[in-house]
What we know:
By secondary structure, the protein is an all-alpha fold. It has 2 domains: 1-73 and 110-129, no CATH class; 131-285. It is 70% helix and 0% strand. It has helices at 2-11, 13-53, 89-93, 108-127, 131-153, 158-172, 180-205, 212-225, 230-252, 261-282. It is globular and about 60 Å long. It starts with a helix and ends with a helix. The chain crosses the membrane at residues 14-38, 131-149, 161-178, 184-205, 217-243, 263-283.
Amino acid sequence: MLDAIAQALIEHNYLFMASALVAGLVVGSFLNVVIYRLPPILQYGWRKDCAELNEQPFKQKAPPGIAFERSHCPHCQKQLPAWQNIPVFSYLFLRGRCYYCRKPIAFRYPLVESLTGILTGFLAYHFGLGWPFLAASVLVFFLIVIAFIDLDTFLIPDQLSLSLLWLGLFFSLFEVFVTPEQAIIGALAGYLCLWLLFHVFKLLTGKEGMGYGDFKLLAAGGAWLGAEMLIMVLILASVSGLVFAIMQKILKKEEVRIPFGPYLSLGIFLCLIYGNTLLNWYLPV
């Protein structure tokens, strides 16, 4: 049965792309939960550990978990039935408002679902059915969560960046994108280059230009793509971040803090798909 389904998906690429898009929409709904709930869970754990370390009472209520807690409206706290959790379509059907309290539903939710679905469908088109598609999809899911959490909190959780790094090393064992040697060197180079840049910038200006989470994210990118591709990741991340900063400055006319994680995530994704083309264009042999 499974062999027949796989054969049908291989023979009918558009069917595979459509299936990947739908699966991506469903995964995107779960990614919204992770983006929304993981930071409070981490903060709760840090506060609890701090209280225990200082031998102080800790009575804060634990936030909802990621896997088993039912979805609810953040305004009226009503639990949402399954039909209100259909990716994108529920938002359109409800016209962007809670069914119970009529408060607006954040546009972030259908945005993440749509982005995940479209990118998963694109990966199906680009790679076809096989290990590269599966590995690339896992990478993209992590990058989406990292980017949006960093936008919200200026924090890249180690649970995400380090897991992504280890997954990159794992997939390198099968040489999906790079060899194990390239992955290890890429991880080391990714961490060290931003670590050195951070300390040089701090020495010259007395300010911290980025966080350690960015070092770990670039190390994860190196584990997936190899050290050679990191120069393009940094160029793409820097250029896109600079363009967005200029646009924000023009529109808001005030100093704004800009997280680097979303732009690193964009650079890693683009290099996964177009890295060799971009590298050959930038550094022609």
